[in-house]
Amino acid sequence: MAFMPRIIKAGTAAVPVLKTVASRGAASAWMQRRSFHRSEGGISDELLFYSLRQPSPVTLREMFDFGKNPTEKTLLLAAQFLQEELPIRIAQRARELRRLPYGLSDTPSVQNVAQLYEDSFKRMMAFPPVRTTEQEREYTKLLSDIKQRHANVQSMVAEGIQQLSRKLKGIHHGDTVALDLSSFLDRFYMSRISIRMLIGQHVALHEPQPPNYVGIIQSDCDPGFVAEQAADDARHNCEYYFCSAPEVEVVGNTDVRLQYVPTHLYYICFELIKNSTRAVVEYHGAENDLPKITIVIAEGEEDIAIKISDRGGGIPRSGMSRIWTYTFSTASNPLADSNMNSGMMASPMAGYGHGLPLSRLYAKYFGGDIKVISMEGYGTDAYIYVRKVGDVDEQLP
Asked: Contact 204/216 with Cβ under 8 angstroms?
């Protein structure tokens, strides 16, 4: 059974409710799914069945409105939606992780990720239908634990790609082998963003809320403040690696506010500013005066736009088509300098090659985008577009 978010009128307020769009009940579905066995590629028929179902996207506004003044009833409805929706999204990725090209599925790190997704699917399916407040609380604890267990998935996938690259270089006697994994990685990471958003929002509704927050969504997110925070952190990062960093100035409509997830906006801004600071230092030299980076914020009819302009030498026109690909960086491997067991990792200046394409996925998730225009020999302008009104469905793979 699938649950879909809907908006209905209750008195004078718009109240989102989760209503079923199929006739059979949750208990019946739960009983039916107990009888599946192993099938395709070692995955269960149960997982295969869910992987073939279509997810039900929601909008940012629906998440925000539904989370306002949460009650036991609304939290129960939300948990029932998640109990049907999350297994679909997790099953789709678990199945794809077992069917990747070039032998990527056989690398130790990707096998660990696949097992993690399959285990999470099994744990979700083993939980009985949520019918009471106590069950809802226990289910929320389960979701919180699953989210934590998946915290290092991005670095695990990156390590799997590097393992495959080393293997193929050995087979081809050191020659670099081009791997077209962008389609898989776009699907995988967009789905990961959506899963962590749904879980994170539900878990946060059970915790004390900061002012002007509903879950992890801020009602008056300040793009200028977020950009300044990201710039400060990117500059500190740059100073740590290069002992120098350019100044960053935020100008434009710094009074604009919008309903958004500030952690998403921070990630986007940080990755782009980090790229700009590194480019400026490498192009001009750490020992020289560095031209400042300018961030301009503008408000349009549809979008809030953030432009990040640097004078870091730009990108050759022949290389522009590759900036959205998940490539291997020339910087040192951040995994070699991190403690993977602790789950704590310093933010490297470069290393994975995932920062820019991931930033665009975060922007696109709720209907935004990132555009990059570069002038080789001078610098680069990156444009972040964020929807003013959160009325666009999640952009799911």
From this structure: yes
